[in-house]
């Protein structure tokens, strides 16, 4: 009997400052990730943040693919920069947690899809750097943190035809949503740039030999009504299929 692949989605912690328990920590991930995986035929597992290395090993043994989700700013101390005043909220425990997830997924030789922060943390893990804020990038003049509903595409991304991303989407130009102020600065050795916005912001990277693909926008917010974005999840579920 063929089993459905188990897709791990890296979680985060939100502090509830309302209701009966102000300050109470809740493990969570946005439900759009879950629904995108289900539509693709996978079984979504939300992976809670932990610093227990043995537990993280168990997570990666038990999943077939990892989605690194969006969220907090990546701590610039990881690439030896001091934080600037434009930096948003960081979560160092989550940075370490996701570093360990990546390390163990590489050991298990299992695929990884990085989304938004997921792209950034992958680039830093492999030795790259980030702009702490896009105001630091010369000639960046597109609004990359849109102020409209999440399922609205607001800017263009151009895709390298010699990339896995192009093979999945069959498009060299797409429209995407955008919710970030950090971005890749120096690309990690071994990573290939596969997508750019019109102002030169890196919108996609891949390490094809390791089944790693990462993008800066949020396909999970678009995939319910946009079949093109659903293809990303379909692809990763397809290569994670169990026999």
Quick structural gist:
With 243 residues, this protein is an alpha/beta fold. It has helices spanning 31-39, 53-62, 92-108, 117-125, 164-169, 227-238; strands at residues 6-10, 12-16, 24-28, 43-47, 65-68, 112-115, 130-131, 155-159, 173-176, 183-184, 192-197, 202-207, 212-215.
Mind explaining what this structure looks like?
The protein is an alpha/beta fold. 26% of the residues lie in helices and 23% in strands. It has six helices and 13 strands. Strands 4-1-5-6-13-12-11-8-9 form a nine-stranded mixed sheet, with helices on both faces. It has a two-stranded antiparallel ribbon with strand order 2-3. The chain has a two-stranded antiparallel sheet with strand order 7-10. Helix 2 packs across helix 3 (92-108). The chain starts with 5 loop residues before the first strand and ends in a 5-residue tail after the last helix.
């Amino acid at each position: 009997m063929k089993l459905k692949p188990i897709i791990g989605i890296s979680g985060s912690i939100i502090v509830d400052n309302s209701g009966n328990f102000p300050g109470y920590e809740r493990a969570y991930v946005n439900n759009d990730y879950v629904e995108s995986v289900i539509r693709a035929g996978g079984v979504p597992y939300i992976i809670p943040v932990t610093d227990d290395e043995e537990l993280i090993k168990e997570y990666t043994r038990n999943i077939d693919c990892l989605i690194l989700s969006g969220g907090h700013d990546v701590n610039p101390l990881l690439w030896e920069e001091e934080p600037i005043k434009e930096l948003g909220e960081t979560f160092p425990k989550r940075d370490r947690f996701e570093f360990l997830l990546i390390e163990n997924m590489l050991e298990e030789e299992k695929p990884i899809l990085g989304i938004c922060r997921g792209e950034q943390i992958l680039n830093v893990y492999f030795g790259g750097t980030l702009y702490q804020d896009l105001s630091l990038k010369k000639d960046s003049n597109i609004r990359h943190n849109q102020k409209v509903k999440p399922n609205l595409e607001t800017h263009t991304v151009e895709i390298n035809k010699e990339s896995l991303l192009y093979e999945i989407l069959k498009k060299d130009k797409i429209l995407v949503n955008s919710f970030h102020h950090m971005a890749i600065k120096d690309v990690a050795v071994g990573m290939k740039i596969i997508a750019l916005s019109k102002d030169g912001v890196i919108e996609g990277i891949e390490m094809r030999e390791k089944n790693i693909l990462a993008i800066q926008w949020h396909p999970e917010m678009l995939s319910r009504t946009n079949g093109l974005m659903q293809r990303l999840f379909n692809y990763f579920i397809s290569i994670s299929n169990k026999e």
